Amino acid sequence: MGDFHSALGLEVNASPQQIQSAYLYWALELNEEPRASGSRTMEQLQRAYSALTGPSRRPQPRPVAERFRPTRSGPRNAPKASAPVRFCLRESLGG
Question: What ranges make up the beta strands (E) of the chain?
Fold first, then answer.
């Protein structure tokens, strides 16, 4: 694993943002002056970048069943259930 980091000129504990910026930097350097960059080749850079940003480094999606599982027992401001109220239209109209 250290070989991939050294191919990009990074330390072992580099963040994904550092990996991406190092890859872009070296890819631009190789495209501008392909012979001047010494032992680095585009194939080595691509292999290192894909290994460091591969599926094991990417966040795994949650299963579909978990995405639709309710997180609470109900709506936040839902009124609590009370005993049913008896309503008579005649009494409420004063008749």
Answer: none
- For the chain, which residues make up each domain, given as ranges? 2-56
Q: Which tokens is 16 given?
A: 């994904």
Amino acid at 76: R
CATH topology for 2-56 is Helix Hairpins (1.10.287)
Note the residue count of the chain.
Answer: 95
Instruction: Tell me the C-alpha distance between 80 and 71, whole Å.
Output: 18
Largest CA distance in the chain: 100
**pLDDT tens digit string along 23-77?**
999 888 887 776 655 566 888 888 889 888 887 765 566 666 666 666 666 556 6
* Distance, CA of 32 to CA of 88 (rounded, Å): 87
